[in-house]
Amino acid sequence: MAAKTKSEIKDRFVVIMAGGRGERFWPLSREKTPKQLLTILGKKSFLQEAVDRVLPLVPAKNIFVITNAAQLPEVREQLPKIPKDNLIAEPVGRDTCAAVTLGAALVGARSITGVMAVLPADHVIPDPKKFQQVLGDAFDVASRGQVIVTIGIKPTEPATGYGYIHTGVALPAPEGAKKTKTTFFKAERFVEKPDFERALEYLNSGAYRWNAGMFVWSFVTVTNGLEKHQPEMHAACQRWFKVAAQPAKLAKVLAEEYPEVKKISIDYALLEKAQNVIVADGAFEWDDLGAWPALARHLKPDAEGNTAVGEFIHVDAARNIIFDARTKNRTPIAVVGLRDAILVQTDDAVLLAHKSQAQKIKDLVKKLAADPKFKKLV
User: Fold this and answer.
1) What pLDDT score does 178 carry?
2) What is the mean pLDDT of residues 212-221?
3) Does the N-terminal or the C-terminal CB of the chain have fewer CB atoms within 10 Å?
4) Tens digit of pLDDT for each residue in 344-375?
């Protein structure tokens, strides 16, 4: 990767979205300590790894983390190198368009020529160097013109849990610009989560990428996009921009205005409407670790396909995911005749679910939250 000048680095920013609740990873993931703040794989939390991945490209003072009030103390604890004022709590959750708008206001207050990457906090990317190559190229391309860059991941299976991007022709490097190692495509259209047959068709065509929710754009490009497609959001961005350099004043304005902001994803609000979207080919391993079954992809299975974290012994059990997160009174987990199950044990709860029903754990969390007897477990 070519060395960047100080002025180029100074104008690069990263906004990390870290306000999710990770409900499908209950009982390990809770409201105050959701998935992105947990250490499930390796020795650092997903959020810490997300920050580490971008530090070679962006200085710590240019990294913002948008979270919520319940998670803010733990975020501060985990990220001591990020300036305190760069860790922002949304008063209420209003989906990704509001968070992007807030991120744009924060970046614009530092540099109106700034280029910002918007990245999730909870993804697994085993090879940081390959990711950094793609992200660095995306920064370069986004800084040169009025384009929205989204990083698309080449599908490895007919997954039905992701949105897809239909890619068009590969784009040549602009005249006079050095060719990047990353291939960029025109984005033809965004496609909702498909059924299995359609997903298989997308996989076999080679013309689709998974929508990983990673975007790069200049402050000018994103605010122009909001002005054209979401004028109310653009107006909010302008108001927040004026107070973004004053943390106390910003917090007060957000507390007053944020609850009334439209709840909509950035995909619906801007990406699917804009005509200037291009796709960076995300040629690196990637997993959003959306639910417990995904964990099996990152753990070594035994001869019967069981993956376990903790002391586990079984007879005639196969393809199970066993996770012991207890910190005290840890005992062996013994299983007989169980197939395709998820068994998670924490100090105060046990989850037993069929792998095929993993998405319904989110419904279980809602049920727990509605019951006074179990609300403390959420």
Assistant:
1) 79
2) 97
3) N
4) 999 999 999 999 999 999 999 999 999 999 99
> Which domains are present in the chain?
6-282 (3.90.550.10), 292-377 (no CATH)
Residue 3 has pLDDT above 60, yes or no: no
Query: Which residues have a Cβ under 8 Å from the Cβ of 316 and sit 6 or more positions away?
Result: 336, 337
CA 65 → CA 11, 16, 60, 148, 258, distances in Å?
Answer: 17, 5, 11, 21, 17
Strand partners, 82: none
In this structure, the number of other CB atoms found within 10 A of the CB of residue 181 comes to 12
Give the confidence band of 107 by pLDDT, cuts at 50, 70, 90.
Answer: very high
What per-residue confidence (pLDDT) applies to 7?
A: 56
DSSP string of 133-195?
HHHHHHHHHHHHSS-EEEEEEPPSS--SSS-EEEEEEEPPPPTTSPPPSS-EEEEEEEEPPP-
Q: Give dist(CA 132, CA 129) in Å, integer.
A: 5
Residues 6+ apart with CB under 8 A from 368: 26, 374, 375, 377, 378
Chain centre distance of CA 111: 24
Q: Are 140 and 180 in contact (CB under 8 A)?
A: yes
DSSP tag of 276: -
Bridge partners of residue 117, in order along the sequence: 14, 216
Find where tokens 């989110």 sit.
362
Buried-exposed string 218-234: b where 16+ CB fall within 10 A, e elsewhere: bbebbbbbbeebbeebb
* Single pTM value for the model: 0.92
Whether 28 contacts 361, CB under 8 Å? no
Please name which of 223, 217, 216, 221 lies closest in space to residue 239, comparing C-alpha atoms: 223
As a whole number of angstroms, the distance between CA 224 and CA 258 comes to: 21
Tokens representing 21 are 């609740």
Query: Which residue would you say has higher pLDDT here, 5 or 65?
Result: 65
Whether pLDDT at 275 is above 60:
yes
Strand partners, 13: 116
